[in-house]
Amino acid sequence: MDVLSVHMDNCPLYKALLTVEEKKATGRMTIEEHNGQNHMYFMQGMPVGVQTSKYLAPLGQLLLERNLCDATTFISAQRRIRDGGGLLPGQVFMGMGVINEDQLKEILAIQSTRKAHHFCKLGSRSFTFSKGLTFLTGFQPTPMHMHMLVFLAVSQQLTKKVRERFLELLSGKEVRLKDCGDDLLPAPLEVYGFGPAEKRFLTRLNQQYQPIWELLESGALLRDSTATLLRYLQVEGLLEVRKGKPRPEPESDAEAALDPEKIQALKSKDKLSTKAKPKRPKTAPRKKTRRLEPLPSDVHPLVVCMPGPPLPPVDPLPSVIISPQIQ
Predict the structure, then answer these.
(1) Is residue 212 within 8 Å of residue 174, measured between CB atoms?
(2) What φ, ψ does residue 214 adopt, rounded to 5°?
(3) How many CB atoms within 10 Å of residue 82?
(4) Taking the domains of the chain in order of start, what are their residue ranges?
(5) How far is CA 269 from CA 77, 204, 274, 275, 276, in A?
(6) In terms of DSSP bridges, do strands 27-33 and 173-177 run parallel, antiparallel, or are they unpaired?
(7) Average pLDDT, integer, range 232-254
(8) How far, in Å, are 214, 219, 220, 234, 298 from residue 247 at the CA level?
């Protein structure tokens, strides 16, 4: 029995996976975390199964997500699995007529991919590889593609800081994709989960050298996705890098003024813009309105003062003096 223990700081997971493929090793890779062990199984250098310490993507849940069974059927299947005498969930659902063999293979592939995501994001810790057929027990075999696992390992363990550092190292350079045939990559694009955007990006790299600054500004992918895909291509040895031309800086107005051709182009552009200006439509003359004179500032605008009749004279009342009586 041969057991090898390595820390990921000295040997990243993607490098370990490529080594297993190169050596065509058979055995089990184990990564421990706080709630248990995670295992990935290999046969002749090819991944054939994965187990996680967490209960991830059960078969019944995946069938519900894809509308292949309803809640009543799901509950009935869970009872049969519990009382079925050791039958696997896939056997129970096939026995109930919920899915056929091809659908079961498709669901198991999705299940193993989700578990592989969890396995590949476990970084900065030790892992062991136990070599031998005796370790290939206690799991449900589900073949996976090694290059898909390498891409998962690269993408899951690239932090934001590492991606920016990688792009900084590639600044001022040009890259091109090595010829891998019609699929552009060692595996079909569907295996990686790539879509039209990734296909356009890879096709562009396959045609000729592309400056990094141009890929980041006018590429089909976002900045983080571009860094991840370029790093994966570099890990697989599929990326050709050479020194490129510096990014052209925008010309100032003074430099443009010294070029007679640009001056002529600007003049012709101004002529076209002046000719293209629409004329203002004529409107009917406005009617003259009489302007009212402003009211005096000491008169309220809502009060009109009119002279009234003179008031009659009023005789003054006699004054009466009341004094206290002195006794």
Answers:
(1) yes
(2) -75, -35
(3) 8
(4) 13-148, 158-243
(5) 74, 34, 9, 10, 11
(6) unpaired
(7) 81
(8) 9, 15, 19, 23, 74
Q: Using alpha carbons, select from 99, 100, 117 the residue that is nearest to residue 63.
A: 99
Which range is least confidently modeled, 187-196, 212-221, 288-297? 288-297
Burial 212-245 (b: 16+ CB within 10 A, else e): bbebbeebbbeeebbbbbbbbbbbbebbebeebe
Strands 126-131 and 2-7: antiparallel
Percent of the chain topping pLDDT 70: 74
Instruction: Tell me how far the alpha carbon of residue 323 is from its chain's centroid.
Output: 104
Question: Which residues lie across from 2 on neighbouring strands?
Answer: 131
Determine if the pTM surpasses 0.85. no
HSE value, Cβ hemisphere, 13 Å, CA-based, for 18: 15
Residue-wise pLDDT for 107-148, tens only, equals 988 888 899 999 998 888 899 999 998 888 877 788 889 999
The angle, 0 to 180 degrees and rounded to 10, between the axes of the packed helices 13-23 and 223-235 is: 30
Least confident of 55-64, 193-202, 261-270: 261-270
Distance of CA 131 to the CA centre of its chain: 38
Q: Return the beta strands (E) in the chain as ranges.
A: 2-7, 27-33, 36-43, 46-51, 126-131, 173-177, 210-211, 239-243
The per-residue b/e assignment along 122-140, b for 16 or more CB within 10 angstroms, e otherwise, is bbeeebebbbeeebbeeee
- In 3D space, the residue among 41, 33, 50, 190 whose CA is nearest the CA of residue 111 turns out to be 50
Architecture of domain 158-243: Orthogonal Bundle (1.10)
Write out the two tokens for 262. Answer: 């640009």
Asked whether residue 213 carries a pLDDT value surpassing 60, the answer given is yes
pLDDT bucket at 4, cuts 50 / 70 / 90: confident
Beta strands in 108-186 (DSSP E): 126-131, 173-177
Identify the helix (H) or strand (E) that includes residue 138.
none
User: Residue 49 forms beta bridges with which residues?
Assistant: 41
